[in-house]
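Sample entry (367 residues):
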Amino acid sequence: MNPAPAGLADPSALYRAMFERNPAIKLLIDPKEGWIVDANPAAVAFYGWDVEQLRSMRIWDINTMHPADIAARLEETRLGKRHRFTFQHRTASGALKDVEVFTGPLSDGGRELVFSIIHDVTERRQLQARMAQTEKLEAIGQLAGTVAHDFNNLLSVVLGYADMLGESLPPEGAHRRPLGELTRAASQAKVLTRKLLGFSRRQPVEKRPFDLAGLTSDLHSVLDRLLGPGIDLNTHLPSPAPVLANPAEWEQVVINLLMNARDAMPSGGAIRLSVCDVELLDDPELHDGTWIELAVADSGSGMSAETLARAFEPFYTTKPPGQGTGLGLATVYNVALHAGGTARIESSPGAGTTVRVLLPPYRSLTK
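Predicted structure, serialized as tokens:
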């Protein structure tokens, strides 16, 4: 019979080493006052403050919740009623991180403490949000495509009868103006249905290799006229930027992005349009390597957090009724997605907006 293993020579030293050397982010907190009593090196690396700085802080200096709400959760933890929370923590750089906290009560002699083991779930949350956005786009696209297809057929009937009516009536008369307005409105509606059908991919899209930088450069004279006076357009378009996509769609993407930037600066401003290679590493959505980035940055008023969160939603617009369909950015996102890439927005109030569209390069064009 094997003898029982010997006891630990110095358990406190062993447990201290487990706290210090463990790669998980760990904090010890005083649940009564909220002071951070101790932090391990992983916490120092994550938050960006050294140990002494962390020990001089209360947990609500890090947690973005109201101190009273944090105190209530510390009390739940102290009583053993709850052991898992989701918070948003602030780092020394000012960055906000989504975290899952696994916690519980601990006693140090006669002193009550709370331990917290913290997992950074920021990238996971971002990926979940992107997946939810993609699923929402697909569901809305299916609905929009069905409605647009049926509506397009009805419009064809309306335009057909309008043509027949125009041919059967005298060439002059009071009827000509309302008939022309009817035809014009129905034609505009057909343009919208084509956008919806393209958004839902009910219309086949032919892809071919082309130089995205060259295509964008060719649009320059058109863009200057579209933007009008008061807008300073700066471009950086080094060729080549080979991609496999539908050129007509990407002309529309560039125009949509620039029109949005213009509308964000009603009193004028500057827009920077660039196409360049970017290197991605450990991106939560795209594989490592070289990607082609189309970026449009404006000096406008920027977006609130609420608007930014919904910017790619189909039919969402901040423009007055009748001045926007809400399909511009949604179409940009959808076109990028079907070309094997994605689109992202960076914006904050007063700091302008940058939209970045990322596409995989088409290798055979570079050979």
